Amino acid sequence: MADERPDDLDFEAALHALEALVARMEEGELSLEDSLREFERGMALTRRCQQLLTQAEQRVQQLTEQGELQPFDEDDQ
Description:
With 77 residues, the protein is mainly α. Helices cover 69% and strands 0% of the residues.
């Protein structure tokens, strides 16, 4: 999965890759060059996750506006 471009990953795959990357970095066994490379990949994965979350939020907003959902109020029952 480390060879996959972050832009090609879905949210779950990007998040999993980011978690695995953080675990590797926390072990402290990487060289400086490898750490920098992993950090750079981690930033790309973080941007990908944020992008996908923003898209999901926009989609939910569109759906709720189209459906004109009202807040749930227990007193109405």
